[in-house]
Design brief:
By secondary structure, the protein is mainly beta. It is built from 1 helix and 18 strands. A hairpin with a 2-residue loop joins strand 3 and strand 4. The termini are far apart.
């Protein structure tokens, strides 16, 4: 479940515009496989969002498209994070697969972002497993990566948009993290094989 504060300034009979803090997800880790399609805003509501550059423009839910989006504001570079709820990894002998679908608004508005995994919803704990620089496809592109957990515990997926002023909108849907069915203890692929 996500929690946040809303603050409305009041002076006598006058009140200002209500502003909300970043949402923070709190609760037990979800089980694997973890899947979030974002077909409703319920999936977005349990994510943690950080507007790292404090420009007031960050990740949001697009109801009409059923996706999460981050838009460029005032021709300024983006520095915005969205984190999934935590999920637990106990079996260190497994290879896990992360998959995400992403798209740019149009080909002339390139998007730059990293898809990361870390131990908590904090940019400092994140390690990039997928990096896209100047992605221009306006059709959803499936992105995948393999992950071997270095230690047991809770992990989160973080998506960090760093698009420059030339961007428009990065859209994300269909996040999935699951056991690939492969063992991390399997021997490496054969190399230097010659026929006689």
């Amino acid at each position: 479940k996500s929690y946040w504060y809303e603050v409305t300034p009041i002076n006598g009979t006058l009140s200002g515009e209500t502003t909300a803090t970043n949402k923070i997800a709190i609760g037990r880790p979800v089980s694997l496989p973890y899947t979030e399609r974002f077909t409703t805003d319920n999936g977005f509501d349990v994510c943690t969002v950080i507007d790292a550059n404090n420009d007031g423009n960050t990740w949001d839910y697009n109801t009409g498209a059923g996706v999460v989006v981050c838009r460029t504001a005032n021709d300024a570079p983006s520095d915005d994070w969205i984190f999934t709820p935590a999920f637990g990894i106990d079996d260190l002998s497994r290879i896990y697969t992360l998959s995400v679908e992403a798209r740019a608004y149009l080909e002339r508005f390139p998007e730059t972002f990293d898809i990361c995994i870390g131990r908590e919803a904090d940019p400092a704990s994140m390690t990039a497993v997928i990096s896209k620089e100047n992605m221009t496809t306006y059709l959803y592109e499936p992105l995948t990566a393999s992950f071997i957990a270095p230690e047991a515990g809770n992990y989160v997926i973080g998506i960090h948009r760093t698009t420059g002023a030339e961007g428009h909108t990065l859209s994300i849907k269909n996040i999935r993290f699951e056991d690939s069915g492969l063992s991390a203890d399997a021997p490496a692929a054969c190399t230097d094989i010659t026929a006689k």
